[in-house]
Amino acid sequence: MTYCVGLRLDEGLVFMSDTRTNAGLDNIATARKMHTWERPGDRVVTLMTAGNLATTQAVVGLIDERTKAPGERIPSILEAPSMFQIARIVGRTLREVIDGNLGDGEALSASAFGATMILGGQIAGSEPRLFLIYPEGNFIEAGDDNPFFQIGETKYGKPILVRAFDPAMGFEQALKLLMVSFDSTIKSNLPVGLPLDYVTYTRDSLRLGRQGRIEPDDAYYGEISNGWGEALKLAFGQLPDFAFPGD
Amino acid sequence: MTYCVGLRLDEGLVFMSDTRTNAGLDNIATARKMHTWERPGDRVVTLMTAGNLATTQAVVGLIDERTKAPGERIPSILEAPSMFQIARIVGRTLREVIDGNLGDGEALSASAFGATMILGGQIAGSEPRLFLIYPEGNFIEAGDDNPFFQIGETKYGKPILVRAFDPAMGFEQALKLLMVSFDSTIKSNLPVGLPLDYVTYTRDSLRLGRQGRIEPDDAYYGEISNGWGEALKLAFGQLPDFAFPGD
User: Fold this and answer.
1) Distance (Å, rounded) from C-alpha A209 to C-alpha A140?
2) Which residues of B touch A228 (CB under 8 A)?
3) Is residue A242 part of a domain?
4) Closest Cα of chain B to A169: distance in Å?
5) Which of A92-101, A138-147, B106-115 bottoms out in mean pLDDT, i.e. has the lowest?
6) Do A121 and A207 meet the contact criterion of CB atoms below 8 Å apart?
7) What span, in angstroms and rounded, lies between the C-alpha atoms of A5 and A90?
C-alpha cells in the first residue's frame, strides 16, 4: 500500500509520499515513490506514484529515458510546452505500460497492474499546476475547490486535511499538516510506513525547493505523532459531553 | 453506504448507526440499520447491518419472525443459550439469505448481495459480548485488544476512535466520541448521512438502555460538528511547526 499527498498552496506546491511497498504482508520493502525533474530557470516537475510497483517503475523509467533520448511518438517532459502536455505524456505512458504496448506482446490487466499518480510543477511563463492521473491515462487538475490530491490509502488521513488545510499556510505548516495526516494513516494501516519523502516547490522559483526524508527515528515526527494523540484527546475533552434527552 | 460502530465499555455496550441507504447516488433514502430484541431480566440483543439492503432486511425479518414462531432447523435468538449461539444463528441466517436458500431457488452472489453485521448483547448469567459477523457467516468477538467494531465506510472515522477510545469512558463521553467519528465520515463521504440512531446497554441491567435518533437539525450534533473543526484546528496549531534541517 501507499499514501501520497500533493498540496497546492499560495506559496507553491508540497509533496509527501511514504516509501513502503509490499507484495503481500510478508514481503515488505522500501521503494522511492517520489520523482523529480528539473531544468533550472525553465521547469520543475514532480511525480508521485501509487499502485503496482512494476508498472510505476516502468512509467518513471520510460519518462526518464525519454528526457535523455526523446522518442518519436512521445516527446520528453523536458520539451513539452505546458504542464497540461506533461500530464498527457504521463497519462499516455501509463496507459502504454498498463496495456503492455512495450513490444513484448504481453497485455496487462488494468485492475492488478494499475497505478494512480500525482503530477505537479511549473513551466516558465505559466502557473504552478497539480494533476491527478488515473490508470486509464486521463486526469483532473487541482483548483480552488479541490486544492489537494491524495493517492493510495487516502481515507484515514483525509479528515484532518479537510479540516485544517488552508492554501495560505506556509511550507512549515503544510509539512506539519502532512505529517499529521500520514501519522493517522500509519496508525490505522500497517502497509503504509516510514520513511517519508517530501519536496517543496516555491512558486516562480523554477528550481526544486527543499527536499528531505523523514526517517523512522526522526525526533520531530515522534513529537508530532505523540503530540497529536495528546492534542486530539485534549480537543475531544474540551467538547461538551452528550446529555441524554430529559436528563 | 453505511457506517455503524459498536463499542464495548466497562459500563456496557453502545451502538450507533447512520440511516442513509442508496442504490446509486441518485436514489437515496432513509432506512433503519439498528434492530433490538429484549426479554427484560433475561436478555438484550442489538444488531446493526451494513451491505445490501434486501439482504439485511431479509436477515432481520427472518430472525424476527423466528422469535415469534421458532423454526425447526434454526432456533430463535430469544431461546438460544448464549450470545455465541446467537452469533451463530445470525451468521447462518445471513449465509442462508446470501446463498438464496429461501426456497425460491434463486442463488445470490456474495459480492453484490453481501452484508456485514455487528451483534451485541447480554444473556443473564454471562458477560455482555460484542461480535462482528462476516458475509460468509463466520464471526469474531471484541476483546480488550479490539474493544470496538466498525462496519461499512469505516476508514474516515477510525483515527479518532483509535486515539480517543477508552473502555472506562461513560455513555455520555462514548456518544460524543461516536458523533465525532460519524461527523468525520459524513464530512468526507456523501452516502453516509444523518439521522443517526443510538442505543446503550448497561452491563447486567438485562433491559435496553437509552435509545434515540439524532436528527439533521440536532443542536448538540451541530455543536460537536462545528466545535470539532475548531478544536482540531486549535490542537493542530498548538503542535510545533516543522523546521527544515539547517534552518
Assistant:
1) 24
2) 163, 235, 239
3) no
4) 11
5) B106-115
6) no
7) 18
Alpha helices in A17-129 (DSSP H): 53-68, 83-98, 110-113
Q: What is the pTM of this model?
A: 0.85
Q: Identify whether B109 is part of a domain.
A: yes
B36-91 pLDDT, tens per residue? Answer: 999 999 999 999 999 988 899 999 999 999 998 866 677 899 999 999 999 999 99
Q: Which range marks the domain in which residue B198 is found?
A: 3-238
Q: B interface mutation test: which of A236, A238, A247 has the most B CBs within 10 A? A: A236
Domain count, chain A: 1
| CATH number where A8 lies | 3.60.20.10
Which chain B residues contact residue A161 at CB under 8 A? none
Residue A225 lies inside a defined structural domain of this protein: yes
* Owner of C-alpha cell 498548538: B238
